[in-house]
Amino acid sequence: MKINKNAEVMERGPQTQKLTSANKAFQTYTLLVLLKYGVAVASVLVVAAILQWWNVKIILYDPPHTLLFLFAVLLSTWVGGPGPGFLAMALSLLVFVFYYLAPNNLLAIHTSDLPSLLVFGLVTLTVVLLTTAQKRMIESLKKADEELKESNLLLQVEINERKRVEKALRESEAKLKEAGQLASIGYWEWDLIADRITRSEETAHIFGLQSSESALSRSQLLDMIHPEDRQLLQRALVETLQERQSLNFEFRIVRPEGDLRHIHVRNEIEFNESGQPVRLFGALQDITGRKQAEEELRRYATRMKLLAEISRDSEAVGLDYQNILDTLVRLTALQIGDSSIILLFSDDGQQVFPAAFYHHDPAAHAMFKDALLRYPQNCTDNPYFQSLFSGNSVYIPVVNEAEFRTIFRPEILPVLDTLGVSSFIIAPLRGPNHVIGGLAIIRDRHGTAYTPDDHVLVQDLADRASLAIQNARFFEQVEDARLRLEALSGRLLAVQEEERRTIARELHDEVGQTLGGLIMQLGMAKSLLPKSARPVRNILDQVETLAQQTLEFIRMIIAGLRPPVLDDLGLIPAVRRLGSEFQEETGIQIEMNTTRLTERLPVPLEVALFRIVQEALTNVRKHARAQRVGITLAMEDGTVRLSIQDDGVGIMKQISPSSTNSKLILEGGWHIPTGHFGLIGIQERVTQLGGRLDLTSVPGQGTTLVVEIPLTETKVVPNENP
Predict the structure, then answer these.
(1) pLDDT tens per residue, range 606-616
(2) 33-84, pLDDT tens digit by residue?
């Protein structure tokens, strides 16, 4: 309830304030009215009191005494207006009648006094009216003076505003003119009735006219239009007038000095009362710069597209050095024409060797290629090649064929006589430290001249060709090094395997036979000893035991170097025996699966696979901490597949190759700690056989190693001991 009362009080607040203001205004107005009428009553009473104090009998026509009452009426009218004035006039008449006319102190009027009273009333009425009129006139004059001052002030403000607007308009016109000059925008107007065209200064500048020249006619304007655009513009103007639509058109003009400019024009149409067109007006802009920029962008886009196509086609041919050179000249000749050649400098820059050539005409291609690629060119007496070797391009739009013949060897002149040369560009192929050659294009005798854009394009192509040639050279060098390294690695493995085989054979034939003979001799020596020579017999027993242990150790070494079972029975029995021995030594369970391999493999392949299994089991023993190892050998689609899987701790896959204690050796981002060469050896063997190694590992879940080796060129023999 309290909240509702407060809300009602808040709602009534504005109403109460309005009532209070109205009451105050009414009280003020009432007090002012009372004051005005009080002045009227008081002024008359004051005059009556003065006259009574003088005890003067007033005669109505006595001016000095009457003037006092007239003054009271005048004062009342001046202070209070006509209302208090009329009140003062009425009171003055009553005072006359009551005090100064017989009989005294009565409101009786004799007929003889009526004219006098009437005159007095008319005089006082005139005073009231004149005073009221004068006061109103004075107030009107004051009001008119105030209004005049206010009008003068407003007029001054309007004058200042007009001056400001005129100044802003002049500044705007100047800025508009400057903007029109900067944007090459001009105004024009065509009076269709008088066939007269007027234009702004910028329009005259765009058309190459003097600003003081008179207006143009339609025929004069059309004479400046490019001949190819003249009919189009006339047709556009006719359609504009017929269809009553705005003109939006681009055309070319030829200025008096012969300069070609591109113009964009827009216009509106003005019609008379009968609907006939009487005036065309609008703006035009010189868009030559924009057209040139658009053309440059178009040429740039075309150039980039061509470069992208050449780069894509070059990538498609791989990194074969000569194939890249042939592809570059072929694409360059087909895209620009007519023929293209790549020249390579000798290291000392004294000679240039044609490395690749192409011409779109097969007959010309065969003839020119045979002549060019057979003979190197001397650079010392050729200014073009000297400039090229210095890193500068050579651009000859129009070739002097007679002069051009002097720079080539005599063997090439018959080709020049057949095809001819009309234009020529050669751009340097820049290497890291020096120019390695040049990319040249040659236009046949009757072809169009090469443009500066063609010159820029050839240089871009040369820059890309330089990068492709350097990459191909680097790849060729790396590939040669890789092949040499693979050959060396294969030779080392072969030598290693042969050395192992030799050592195993010598240990078996020499050391093994010697130890066997020693054991036999020790047995014979023991049989010849008397029973009393027990101490000597004990010593011989110990020597015989050591000899047998040594022989057994030699046999283990022979099996490690080259197990005889591998040569005699093949891969599967050798791997089974290796697994059995590994299980006995380590206690790690070995599971073998060789059911899908029923044929013997070539000896080098069996040896390699055996060594891979041997090295993998060695890694399991050292690092895996596994409980089980599974070995699978299979033949699938002409490919031998070896899989070795353990349930050990796995291998941590390091993401960054920047670790100082690891080395990246496998595809997929696997890093093996430095000093662990087992997987490196496995990978080398697989690479030598043209196979593939795949390693997968999850920490805590074990490691799987898969080797796949194709048998495309290896003869497979039946396996007699699966």
Answers:
(1) 888 888 888 88
(2) 778 778 777 877 787 777 767 655 554 445 556 677 777 777 777 777 777 7
Extract the tokens encoding 140: 């009107």
CA dist 306 → 49, 219, 314, 397, 424 (Å): 124, 46, 12, 21, 20
CA dihedral 489, 494, 498, 503 (to 10 degrees): 30
Cα–Cα distance for residue pair 376/382, rounded to 1 Å: 13
| CB-CB neighbours of 705 under 10 Å | 22
Amino acid at 215: A
What does the block give as tokens for 714? Answer: 């290896």
Q: Do strands 185-191 and 196-199 pair parallel, antiparallel, or not at all (unpaired)?
A: antiparallel
> 378 phi and psi, to 5 degrees?
-80, 135
* Domains annotated on the chain, with CATH: 27-152 (no CATH), 184-286 (3.30.450.20), 298-480 (3.30.450.40), 568-718 (3.30.565.10)
Q: Which residues make Cβ contacts (< 8 Å) with residue 569, sequence separation at least 6? A: 720, 721
Cβ distance 70 to 127 under 8 Å? Answer: yes
- Of 96, 123, 91, which is closest to residue 109 (Cα–Cα)? 96
Sign for the pseudo-dihedral over CA of 139, 140, 142, 143: positive
Residue 256's identity, in one-letter code, is P
Residue with tokens 């240089």: 459
β-strand pairing of 670-673 with 662-666: antiparallel
| Sign of the CA dihedral with 619 first, then 683, 662, and 630 last | negative
Is 47 in contact with 71 (CB distance < 8 Å)? yes
589-596 β-sheet, strand order: 589-596, 628-636, 639-646, 702-710, 692-698
Q: Nearest-CA neighbor of 679 among 634, 668, 589, 630?
A: 668
Count, in order, helices (H) and strands (E) of the chain. 20, 20
pTM, rounded to two decimals: 0.43
With H, G, I as helix, E, B as strand and everything else as coil, classify residue 6: helix
